[in-house]
Amino acid sequence: MTVSERGPRERMVFSAAQLIRRGGVSAAGMRDVAEHAGAPRGSLQHYFPGGKEQLVNEAVGWAGRYAAGRVARFLAALPVPTPSGLFGEMVRQWTDEYETSGFAGGCPVAAATADCAERVDSTRQAASAAFAQWHGAVAAALADMGVTPERASALATLMLSSLEGAILLARAEQDIRPLTTVTRELAPLLDAAVTGNSPRCSTPP
Amino acid sequence: MTVSERGPRERMVFSAAQLIRRGGVSAAGMRDVAEHAGAPRGSLQHYFPGGKEQLVNEAVGWAGRYAAGRVARFLAALPVPTPSGLFGEMVRQWTDEYETSGFAGGCPVAAATADCAERVDSTRQAASAAFAQWHGAVAAALADMGVTPERASALATLMLSSLEGAILLARAEQDIRPLTTVTRELAPLLDAAVTGNSPRCSTPP
DNA sequence: CGACTACTATGACGGCGGTCATAGTCGACG
DNA sequence: CGTCGACTATGACCGCCGTCATAGTAGTCG
Fold first, then answer.
1. Distance B48 CA to D1 C1' (A)
2. What CATH number is given to the structural domain containing A125?
3. Which of B201, B183, B204, B205 minimizes the C-alpha distance to B192?
């Protein structure tokens, strides 16, 4: 959240991600990024000779690393690690933000994908890598909980998909209900995978 | 898919949705929309005096109506209606497109949400209405299958979220696997709701 | 001190995109 | 025929945006 400290270069990447989050890539002008980062405009062409494309790609990469890093911190915060607990924390990050700061922003990787996936292949690849990193972190966490690697990967995909989609719905409706709904509905399915039981049932009534 | 027939006004709305699907709202220029629709540029300001905002909002509304309409057609195509069967058809529409035509486009409502949700409230409302219409159609279909209204609504939210998120991942990775994964993983959970059993288990092994 | 590199500062340029203004076509109706 | 309304056609305007060019500062090393 803090923009201060760390070099101006990193600040600009961070600010780019913040602005992309809100209005997509085209709404994140280079001048805006510099101003938001409190950095001189002239530094943009110095640090990012590849132009906006490079800046956007680095912002997407930063978001991927950030999301993956959060997974570890979520795990550490859980008293007893469970798939539903992890997913709940991942979702809670968004409900907290939306409740305290409003529904201004979405996922920067999602925005970059929607805006650039077709035209700018390097950005699409950056988004793919970011999702892959995030997915890998979640899948590894699930595997640590005793889920088989194949199902861990599949469930991680399901978690990411549901979260991204719920973020979208929540922003459109300006209501966190989609987020809470997917958390609640997915919880039993997620936890069922950790027992090593049938994929369907976990705890009988 | 057909651009021909129907008045030029409707064609332009349709074309706008098509272009928004690909590169977001900012990539859908007014001149591009007119050209893509084979309509005269001068007609834009005649049919859409509200400017681009109106055009985008109508495109989003069109997409919502289209998605809701598809639900009914999917139901009709199913030999025996089940929640997982419906979801499979909804997903299949996307896997079919991506396999035959490439990963060029996503959901226009999602793109409009990501691009305009914060700045243009009328567009955000249009997106919310579109999602609501789509959600209502899915929930009604589930209720017809014997799912209680509350769970039908919750599962519809889950289906929409997972589908939208999987579309995003699929476009980034240029691979339909996220789509097939969510279909497979969600199927037992969805069908479990139709039996009226416990929310967790349906068919014991 | 001089030179060199890293970084900053700012103005200009070219293109694009939404919108407006103005005029033109065409059919209907009286 | 005249007029009116619906629609089409085009060019111009203005602002924004990414990029480039050029120059300036500052710290460092020889």
1. 34
2. 1.10.357.10
3. B201
Collect all residues with Cβ–Cβ distance below 8 Å to A89 and sequence separation of at least 6. A74, A77, A78
Question: Which residue carries 């969600």 as its tokens?
Answer: B186
State the total domains in chain A.
Answer: 1
Query: Cβ distance B109 to A172 under 8 Å?
Result: yes
> Å from A27 to nearest chain B CA?
8
Residue A80's SS3 state is coil
CB-based contact B205 A198, cutoff 8 Å: yes
CA distance A114 to A179: 20
Residue B175 included in any domain: yes
Below-70 pLDDT ranges, chain A: 1-5, 196-205
Cα B199 to the center of its chain, rounded Å: 27
Q: Using one digit for the tens of pLDDT, what is the confidence trace for B95-146?
A: 999 999 999 999 999 999 999 999 999 999 999 999 999 999 999 999 999 9
Give yes or no for a contact between B81 and B141, defined as CB atoms under 8 angstroms apart.
yes
Residue B166 lies in a domain: yes
In three-state secondary structure terms, B116 is helix
Interatomic CA–C1' length for residue B9 and nucleotide C29, angstroms? 26
| pLDDT class of B5 with cuts at 50, 70, 90 | low
d(CA A145, CA A141): 7
Interface of A with B in 135-194 (CB under 8 A): 154-155, 157-158, 160-166, 168-169, 171-174, 177-178, 181-182, 184-186, 188-189, 192
**Dist. CA A13–CA A108, nearest whole Å:** 12
Helices (H), B102-176: 108-116, 121-144, 149-173
Which domain does B17 fall in, by range? 8-192
pLDDT in tens, A25-49: 999 999 999 999 998 898 999 999 9
CA distance A193 to A72: 20
Residue type, B94: W
Does some domain include residue A204?
A: no
- How far apart are the C-alpha atoms of B191 and A170, rounded to whole Å? 25
Residue B205 is assigned to a structural domain of this protein: no
Structure tokens belonging to residue B106: 């996503």
